[in-house]
Amino acid sequence: MTELFEPYRVPQGAAQSGFPEEVTRSEPGSLSGAAMSAQLVAAVECAPAPVGLWEFGSGRLRYLNPAAAALVGFPEGCEVSARTAADVCTDAAVAQAPEVSAALTGRGRWCGRTELRHLRTGAPIPMVLSVFVTERDEDGRPLLIGVIGREPSTAGEQEHPLLAALAEADQRCREQHVLAELSRLAVTADLDTLLTAATAEVTALLGVRCAAVARVPDTGGAALTVLGYHGPGPRPITVAAGRGSLTGCAATEAAVVCCPDRARERRFATADMAAHGLGGGIGVPIGHDPIWGVLTAHFARPCPIREREVALLRAVAAVLSTALGRIEAEERLRHRSLHDPLTGLPNRTLALERLRAALDRAARTGGRVAVLVIDLDNFRHLNARLGHAGGDAALIRLADRLRSVVRPTDTVARLGGDEFLILCPAVTGPADVIAIADRIASVDPHPGAGPVTASIGIAVTGAAVSPHELIHHADRAMFRAKATGPGRYALHHPDTYGTCR
Question: What top-level branch of life does the organism fall under (predicted)?
Answer without folding.
Answer: Bacteria
